[in-house]
Amino acid sequence: MSELIEKIGICVERGKVNKASPFPPDMKGLDGADEYTKLAIEAKTSADAILQACNDGMQRVGEKFGKNLVFVPELLMAAKAMHAVMAHLKPFFQSGTVKTKGTFILGTVAGDLHDIGKNLVSMVIEGNGWKVIDLGVDVKAPRFIQKISENPGCVVGLSALLTTTIANMANTIKEIKTTSPTTKVIVGGAPLTAGSAQEMGADGYARDPQAAVALLNSIGVS
Amino acid sequence: MKSLLKVLDTGKILISDGAWGTLLQGRGLQPGECPELWNISHRTDVLSIARSYVDAGADIILTNSFGGSPSKLKHYELDDRTAEINQAAAAISREASGEKGFVLGSMGPTGVILMMGEVPEETLYEGFCIQAKALEKGGVDGLCIETMSALDEACLAVRAVKESTSLEIACTFTFERTVSGDFRTMMGVSPSEIVGALIEAGADIIGTNCGNGFDGMIDIVKEIRQIDSKIPVLVHANAGKPVVQDGKTVFPETPEMMAAKVDKLIHVGANIIGGCCGTTPDHIRALTKAIVH
Predict the structure, then answer these.
(1) Residue A140, Cβ neighbours under 10 Å: how many?
(2) What is the ipTM of this complex?
(3) Interface of A with B in 89-128 (CB under 8 A)
(4) How far does the CA of residue A185 sit from the closest CA of chain B (Å)?
(5) Number of domains comprising chain A
(6) Which residue segment(s) compose the domain that A164 sits in?
(7) Nearest alpha carbon to residue B227 among B191, B184, B280, B185
């Protein structure tokens, strides 16, 4: 049983979705996250243990990403493998057997249409056990504020790629803090630095998805 | 037709333009508005920006069509106007530059990650063809496929342009310095990896834009030159990495700071030099002066 758990973790870390997937090349033809999770559930492995393995796998690939040892393609494939695991765990979430750590509301700020970075953050955070509400791109402040009111205690994440939309990010934070002063807002994106994030009033800055997980787990769990 | 390659062959260093997005915002482009639609709705403003770079001494100007692919325009429900918008972009820059200057049509990434398999290759290929043909019809001398990070998408774009137009093609990638100090795109592609792949796909000019100031660009050009000493190299550098001061985005490198490093950039092998985010006509003017001296 522990062997299956370990394999699930490795499949997530390496981005091995299922037997049919050719990625990664050195695991071609082998079972993937999908097959091993099915077997683990059949063997009555606890959903919590499977989720933990999945979290650990995502954490390992997230750390490698943060060290630039792997890049976007590897992280996307890991997230795809994670989703294969999650699909099997869905009933356990629905029945309440497994609980999420909290709710994370995420979006790319107004005027910015870039979603690759945001999607990576979304996937890695979901893989860490959070419920993620992804509002998409070009999200204006009122939309964030509406979702915050529907999800008390949530943490908000803002993404931007364009240097020209940093000002919109600062305004979004200001508007969120005006209507909901206790809501924590974290930010990330290529043009940002820890200093600029602080300057615009964010509660934290994450330079990569794994850093966002660490940040979220330190400030967001009530 | 004019040939950029022929001019580069004479050994001349050419100056290209700087940022457009920030200048559009300065003229009132609002967050969430489609910048490319301004080619039609605010033609005079876009023309003024193009002219400001010609007046600053740029030998080459680009077009306001970076997000002019059907997949990007779709967000604004403007994908059915792709040809019209791109043709207008080209006509504006042509008008600003006159017949003697060079105009390169800007083509940015689609935002689609091909390896995820969610959008078929043919869809992107067709989109690149529509955009390239419209830019050609509007009067550009060549195309600049820029800010790329994935080799498959960039090569697909180069092939699409090659097969649907008779234009000279530049293709530039955006690199970031990794923790270990070398350069990679977010998809993990290194400067040396783009060289062979882009030339094979049909690119006439390769290079790098965005993400770095001149210091980073110098290292990137060095790496490209280790692989190929002949292919013309284009650099569009940021005015450094932005910082936020008093709620405003500020780019730290002044025109003088950039101009001071231009010799070094030429020395390592750059042939066309211009700006990206944070650069202004003043930066381009300073670069032009520095090269004349």
Answers:
(1) 18
(2) 0.84
(3) 109-117
(4) 16
(5) 2
(6) 103-219
(7) B191
- Positions of chain A with pLDDT lower than 50, given as ranges: 222
Give the residue from chain A lying closest to B250, CA to CA: A163
| Total structural domains within chain B | 1
How distant is the Cα of B84 from the closest Cα of chain A, in angstroms?
Answer: 21
Is residue A161 within 8 Å of residue A117, measured between CB atoms? Answer: yes
Do residues A142 and A90 share a domain?
A: no
Residue range A135-162, pLDDT digits in tens:
999 999 999 999 999 999 999 999 998 8
A188 phi-psi bin (left φ>0, alpha ψ -120 to 50, beta other): beta
Which pLDDT belongs to residue A1?
55
The residue among A95, A120, A149 that closes a domain is A95
Domain hosting B146: range is 4-292
Same-domain pairing of A68 and A122: no
**Same domain, residue pair A195 and A113:** yes
Show the low-confidence residues of chain B (pLDDT under 70): 247, 293
Distance from C-alpha of B115 to C-alpha of A178, rounded to nearest angstrom: 42
CA-based R_g, chain B, Å: 17
Give just the sign of the alpha carbon dihedral B34, B40, B45, B47: positive
Q: Are residues A159 and A74 in the same domain?
A: no
**For tokens 């699930």, what's the residue?**
A8
A83 plus A140 within the same structural domain: no
pLDDT in tens, B111-149: 898 988 889 999 999 999 999 999 999 999 999 999 999
Cα A26 from chain centre: 26
Residues A173, A214 within the same domain: yes
User: What are the residues of chain B with a beta carbon less than 8 Å away from any beta carbon of chain A?
Assistant: 21-22, 25, 30-33, 67, 72, 75, 111, 113, 115-116, 149, 176, 178-180, 184-188, 211, 238, 241-245, 247-249, 251, 277-278
Are B35 and B21 within 8 A, CB to CB?
yes
What is the residue whose two structure tokens read 């915002």? B25
